[in-house]
Amino acid sequence: MASGGLQLLGFVMAFLGWIGIIISTAMPQWKMASYAGDNIVTAQALYEGLWMSCAMQSTGQIQCKVYDSLLKLESSLQATRALMVASILLGLVGVFVAVTGMKCMKCMEDDQVKKMRMAVLGGVIFIISGLAALVATSWYGNRVARAFYDPFTPVNTRFEFGSALFIGWAASSLALLGGSFLCCSCPRRETSYPPTRGYPKNASSTGKDYV
């Protein structure tokens, strides 16, 4: 029962992490304009994401523009896109594999060993998915931080971390923890010994002597 509860907890955490990775990938707030300089402009807020850039006016109106050409984008942004998409696809595979190995599911009940291996394999896939998202978000965040502290970057063009980065970090951590719990939910094999055969008991004497 304990391993089943740990397995269910790991799957829920990994699944929530996978959903968070999808949300983070779709959000345009990967970095937001910083207004730390002398010329503070509060009429609009600028955001940039993996797929589009957005400007929010003081009235609350948001205007977004999808990036026109894939080839004109920076190679680092293209690599971040690829890692996040790969993380989503791996997470999708991990969901199906882990569900097959869950103890509460009816499939593969006749072979418990293969069922446990499927759960562990799903956990490994979730760990790889979380690592891909963690690398992508950390790499992107490092680029934003380096550009912010670069003295040659104009003050009015500096960016800070957006909310999508924090969601991506939290989601990748959930996927990693959930995948680890799935891998640890497999019970250890206990050494099994063949059952001892009972020796036939001697027929009890009736106490009567036959001549």
From TrEMBL:
The keyword Signal does not apply. InterPro entries: Claudin (IPR006187), Claudin1 (IPR003548), Claudin_CS (IPR017974), PMP22/EMP/MP20/Claudin (IPR004031). Signal peptide: none annotated. Keywords: Cell junction, Cell membrane, Membrane, Tight junction, Transmembrane, Transmembrane helix. It is found in: Cell junction, Tight junction; Cell membrane. It is a multi-pass membrane protein. Gene3D superfamilies: 1.20.140.150. One of its GO terms (cellular component) is bicellular tight junction. The keyword Hydrolase does not apply. GO terms for molecular function: structural molecule activity. The chain crosses the membrane at residues 7-27, 79-99, 119-141, 161-184. Pfam families: PMP22_Claudin (PF00822). Claudins function as major constituents of the tight junction complexes that regulate the permeability of epithelia. Belongs to the claudin family. This is Claudin.
